[in-house]
Design a protein that fits this description.
The complex is a heterotrimer of chains A (299), B (372) and C (264).
Chain A (H helix, E strand, L loop, with lengths): L4 H7 L6 H13 L10 E4 L1 H9 L6 E4 L23 H6 L4 E5 L5 H9 L4 E4 L5 H15 L2 H22 L7 E6 L7 E3 L4 H8 L3 E2 L7 E3 L2 H7 L3 E5 H6 L2 H6 L2 H4 L2 H5 L2 E4 L1 H5 L5 H12 L1 H4 L3
Parallel strand pairs in A: 1-2, 1-3, 3-4, 5-7, 5-9, 9-10
Antiparallel strand pairs in A: 5-6, 6-8
Chain B lengths: L2 H4 L11 H32 L7 H11 L10 H35 L12 H15 L5 H4 L3 H24 E2 L2 E2 L1 H25 L2 H12 L7 H19 L2 H7 L3 H6 L4 H23 L5 H12 L4 H25 L8 H23 L3
Antiparallel strand pairs in B: 1-2
Helix pairs in contact in B: 2-4, 2-15, 3-4, 4-10, 4-13, 4-14, 4-15, 5-7, 5-8, 5-9, 5-13, 7-8, 7-13, 10-13, 10-15, 11-15, 14-15
Chain C lengths: L1 E10 L2 E11 L3 E6 L6 H9 L6 E6 L2 E2 L5 H7 E4 L11 H7 L10 H14 L15 H15 L15 E5 L7 H16 L3 E5 L3 H7 L2 E6 L2 E6 L1 H4 L2 H8 L3 E5 L6 E5 L1
Parallel strand pairs in C: 3-8, 3-9, 6-7, 7-8
Antiparallel strand pairs in C: 1-2, 1-4, 4-5, 9-10, 11-12
Classes of the chains: A alpha/beta (299), B mainly alpha (372), C alpha/beta (264).
């Protein structure tokens, strides 16, 4: 019996949380050994779609989810809705022969229904690290029957990241970064520890200014003032929603911070920054240029 | 009246015959009930027949025949079979149950509150049920051992039922005084309870972990999707039984409309009726909320449509609401799952889009009629 | 027929009724008068069974009210409320038919309908049968309600709804919303029922109206019974002045000879 390659790829890596093990089982069971590569693919998750495009397999995509905003061509594909509110029948109607889902996709009842219909489902773990990006690429590539291209892409990403990491190697000072994200009205959400934002900030040689909280939590003005961030990072959408850089830096709780004093505010596309897809080295590099302009400057 | 009185009495209009008028109206009522049953049947057929995957009536019949042990005669695909049997049929059954239960609960609560504006959502019952269910979703892992054995599929409806019961009782106690119910107090109590429960749900969202948050989010927006026959089997009796039981409360509910004291004088056990309505409405709304999330306005719009067409007599209002509520929810769900293909709209949004303006129109119309 | 003994009702430390003993005999019209807050409506609700007294007992045909099956009691005892709010568009005929609820299972729909029509005819409101109740005027509603309570205690012993079954009708300020003509029509009708054998108790504000139709008058003040007896014996200058705090002279009705109060 031929074990699917994907399981070997996983087993060979040290990365193996319990969640990943469970998902691994799903992957092993859900992907039948097939000779023909899948031709009608639905991709759910912004990073997954980016990987499909990066592998050059976008001509096989029949639909994506609403978080798949990059590249722009993905917008022209049918949209199966928000990745956590999928619907079963419209997906079946698209007659996919492969569905690649980021692990957050849901709701679980709908995923279970889809699995029962026998559509090959590949659930991709979402670990906010370069190793996680590598796993994503390899998993997606394997599912598409593009293992070689996947290995090449993964190597390319790791090389790109290594270049950034090398430049940051000598950096000892870790600027305190406050990541803000506004969702609707009310206080913006701030990123604490164990978030994708904290992970990308760490890769870029910074640390999250709110280390005491975990997850994304509504920003407490006093906690923000006490955090005294050196740099503020926001998604581009949030920059618009909160009235521009001036408006954010002049908020009472941030006005006295080093970030406001030095005017250090970075706005980046949310998917680029937090997606942990193939563009992550680019995101890390751009963030690092703001955090450590000297180290990143061309030597 | 005695002879001397009759001398001053106004004479009944010539040719007036209340018996004939009642017969004509009875005929119209039966016709309307038959029409509503027809609408329900059509709604079921549309709901089962229309969707993203094309299934012709012949194929549908053939698939069903296959299930009944007969030889299928069409060349349908396995996907079509799965869609029909595992997606559309349970979903249609759920739509009938939830729509019927919400509409009957709405009609019965309007009778209990003696006010046509009472709605499980408006007076805070749905939110109370939602809060209790949210507690189960978020804190479910930390439950005492005794409850851990109870499956979540059963625990969720029970919790929602408890939440609905507590809120209904609270609203009734607050708004009811001396056998009368103040509409302003009723709606204000509903607003306050909605706010309190909403805030409590907010706290739960704040403390919940990512997985719980996702479950919560899906479920607060309301959807008929994701239902399976297994879950239906558990929840169906919890919705169907109270909806059917409410039908026997028609006469006391009619009497209750004049006030509690008057109903007592007419020979009804008012306290028992009140308790029953509260329990049945909470059970129906609670188990609906547990399965589909919060779906607003069905309990308000449907009984009103029935009153406008057939009249307010609970003996026809309740069964008619059952049928019309089921139809309305099926049709709303049909729109929800076909309007933005290949995605789906949350059905709660659709019913609110229809129900909100309807409610406003109702307020204006009632003011126009001078009923307030 | 309907007898309350030693009835006491306490609410928030206040004695709304204080040891009242009152019997409503058959074939009579008893008027219950007294100033605002005297406890008239409270007494009526205790007698009807809607309110349970803190002390004392109400018996109907020598049987405590609580022992009566609800429907049995409802077929023999009806109450006309002060006013009936109804926010739902029932027709007047539907409202009257609701009075037949206690007869469910014992009376056919056709019979119920015949009774409702007869009751509406009796109160001169047949023309209102198909009208929507909430759109009726106060007086029209009161007549429809009267037809409803009539339909509730309608008996067929003599084929005209006025049989020998002992029955009691309690009227709670029935003339409140009525114009002059309909006030008198209603009271004449109540008198007519009493003459047919029904025990009628009416809470009334206007002693002069009461004097015209009642054969007995009960005066209540501060939850206590102040006077009870034939109208002539009760409606005296002394009683009225003491209870209402209004000096009056008692004259005689020019044609009927009943007492008639005129403020001094």
């Amino acid at each position: 019996m031929i074990l699917p390659f994907v399981s070997l790829a996983f087993a060979s890596r040290a990365f193996a949380s319990r969640v990943a093990m469970a998902l691994l089982l799903c992957v092993v069971m859900a992907v039948p050994v097939r000779a023909e590569p899948p031709e009608r693919v639905i991709s759910v998750g912004g990073a997954i779609t980016e990987i499909v495009y990066a592998l050059g397999a976008d001509d096989r995509l029949v639909a994506v989810d609403s978080t798949s905003t990059h590249p722009a061509a993905a917008d022209d594909l049918p949209d199966v809705g928000y990745m956590r509110r999928l619907a079963a029948e419209p997906i079946l109607a698209l007659d996919p022969d492969l569905m690649i889902l980021v692990e957050d996709a849901g709701p679980p009842e709908i995923i279970a229904q889809l699995r029962e219909t026998g559509i090959p489902l590949v659930t991709v773990p979402d670990e906010p690290s370069i190793a996680g990006v590598r796993d994503k690429v390899l998993t997606v590539a394997e599912a598409l029957g593009e293992a070689e291209a996947g290995a090449a892409l993964a190597a390319e990403i790791e090389a790109a990241h290594a270049a950034v990491a090398e430049r940051l190697a000598g950096v000892t000072e870790r600027p305190r970064v406050l990541f803000l994200m506004s969702i609707g009205a009310g206080a913006p959400l701030a990123a604490g520890a164990e978030t994708s934002a904290a992970a990308v900030i760490a890769l870029a040689g910074g640390r999250t200014a709110l280390e005491d909280i975990t997850g994304f939590k509504p920003l407490s003005p006093e906690a923000a003032a006490a955090a005294a961030p050196d740099v503020i990072v926001v998604p581009e959408r949030t920059l618009e929603a909160m009235g521009g850089a001036e408006a954010i830096l002049s908020r009472a709780e941030l006005a006295d911070s080093p970030a406001a004093r030095d005017g250090r505010l970075v706005a980046m596309d949310a998917l680029l920054l937090l997606g942990f897809g193939p563009r992550t080295p680019e995101a890390v590099a751009r963030l690092a240029e703001s955090l450590h302009p000297d180290a990143m400057a061309v030597r | 009246m005695s002879g001397e009185v009759s001398a001053t009495a106004t004479v009944p209009a010539p040719g007036q015959d209340p018996a004939a008028w009642m017969r004509r109206r009875g005929g119209r009522t039966r016709l309307a009930l038959v029409a509503m049953a027809g609408v329900l049947i059509v709604s079921v057929l549309l709901s089962v027949g229309i969707g993203a995957v094309a299934i012709s009536p012949a194929e549908a019949l053939s698939i069903l025949a296959g299930q009944a042990g007969l030889a299928p005669w069409t060349d349908h695909t396995r996907v079509q079979e799965t869609v029909l049997l595992s997606l559309r049929l349970p979903r249609a059954v759920l739509g009938i149950l939830v729509g019927g239960a919400l509409a009957v609960a709405g009609a019965a609560m309007q009778g209990l509150f003696r006010n046509p504006l009472a709605d499980p959502g408006l007076v805070g019952v749905s939110t109370g049920a939602a809060l209790a269910a949210a507690v189960v979703i978020v804190l479910g892992g930390a439950l005492p051992l005794g409850l851990a054995g109870v499956g979540r599929d059963l625990l969720l409806p029970l919790a929602a039922f408890g939440g609905g019961l507590a809120t209904t009782w609270l609203v009734y106690r607050i708004a009811s005084h001396d056998g009368r119910t103040e509409v302003a107090t009723l709606l204000l109590a509903g607003i306050a309870l909605n706010a309190v429960a909403g805030a409590a749900i907010g706290v739960l969202v704040f403390v919940s972990d990512d997985q719980a948050l996702r479950d919560l989010n899906f479920w607060l927006l309301g959807s008929l999707g994701g239902v399976t026959w297994d879950r239906l089997l558990i929840a169906a009796p919890l919705m169907l039984a109270p909806a059917l039981a409410a039908l026997v409360l028609a006469r006391p509910l009619n009497a209750l409309l004049f006030g509690e004291t008057e109903a007592v004088h007419m020979g009804f056990d008012v306290e028992r009726t009140k308790r029953l309505v509260v329990v049945l409405a909470a059970l129906a709304v609670g188990s609906s909320v547990a399965l589909t999330g919060v779906i607003g306005f069905v309990g308000l719009v449907v009984p009103h449509l029935v009153r406008m067409t057939i009249g307010p007599d609970h003996r026809v209002l309740l069964p008619a609401s059952l049928m019309l509520g089921a139809s309305l929810l099926l049709l709303a769900d049909l729109l929800a799952r076909t309007l933005v293909l290949p995605a789906e709209l949350p059905i709660g949004i659709l019913t609110s889009v229809i129900g909100g303006p309807f409610f406003l129109w109702l307020l204006l119309r009632r003011r126009g009629l001078g009923l307030w | 027929m309907l007898a309350g003994s030693d009835l006491t009702v306490i609410r928030r430390g206040r004695r709304l009724l204080d040891g009242v003993t009152l019997a409503v005999p058959g074939a009579s019209l008893t008027a219950l008068i007294g100033p605002n807050g005297a406890g008239k409506s409270t007494l009526l609700h205790v007698l009807s069974g809607a309110l349970t007294p803190e002390a004392g007992q109400v018996r109907f045909l020598d049987r405590p009210l609580g022992d009566w099956p609800r429907a049995d009691l409802a077929r023999r005892r009806a109450v006309l409320p002060q006013s009936s709010t109804l926010s739902f568009p029932f027709r007047a005929l539907d409202v009257v038919l609701m009075g037949r609820s206690a007869h469910a299972g014992r009376s056919s729909h056709d019979h119920d309908l015949a009774v409702a029509v007869a009751a509406l005819t009796a109160v001169d409101a047949l023309a209102l049968a198909e009208r929507i109740y909430p759109t009726l005027s106060g007086g029209e509603r009161q007549r429809v309600q009267l037809a409803r309570v009539m339909a509730q205690i309608w008996t067929d012993d003599d084929g005209e709804g006025q049989g020998r079954t002992p029955r009691v009708l309690l009227l709670d300020e029935p003339t409140n919303n009525l114009d002059l003509l309909h006030q008198h029509q209603l009271m004449r009708f109540a008198r007519h029922l009493a003459d047919q054998g029904v025990g009628v108790l009416a809470v009334l504000h206007d002693p002069n109206l009461a004097a015209l139709y009642a054969d007995r008058m009960v005066v209540l003040a501060d939850g206590r019974m102040v006077a009870d007896g034939p109208v002539d014996a009760v409606m005296t200058e002394a009683v009225i002045a003491r209870v209402f705090g209004l000096p009056v002279t008692v004259q005689r009705h020019p044609t009927r000879g009943t007492p008639h109060l005129v403020p001094v």
